Amino acid sequence: MAGTLLQLFGGAITATAPNNLLDASEIRQIPDTQEVFLFPDSSISIIVEILQRVEPDDNQDAVKFHFDSLAHDNDAVSREVSSMKVVPNDRGDATPSVTTLSGVQRVSKFNRSSPDEVRVLMALYRVVEKGIDLVVSFNIPVHTADGGAMRQEELQQAEEQFNVFARSLRIEDFSVFA
Which PANTHER family is this protein grouped with (predicted)? Predict the structure, then answer.
């Protein structure tokens, strides 16, 4: 799968991402602690956030906390975690190993009575010495109330892109967390 090295937070963090992403900061204001990218041909979004480290010490509990927090922020009517796993960083750099989560949130959008089903793929990198949780979320609308549905091959491609992004993410400059 072709990709490009994406420079995040002024190059302090890099990751391999699809070539055609749109930088959401070009169309709306994005907080300094976030990078947001949109897929031009679908409703998929990628959000990379620098957050204060949350209380659970266990990485799987922490990634689930962030997933639940996202569900709360989205006013999700339901949420379900499908899987979680730890992917060790075996590259030899200082980037922490990543804990990934796959789940589904059902979110009512635009005051619709029927909720959209959104697949959330989340990656958590805990920078313990800086008190930071770096969280990557791919938000993939699978079924929408307006009749939109993602084909299985599109979902598989998005999952592959998430895996490449999560495994390739590298913290180049830890001072970004100062």
Answer: RAN GUANINE NUCLEOTIDE RELEASE FACTOR
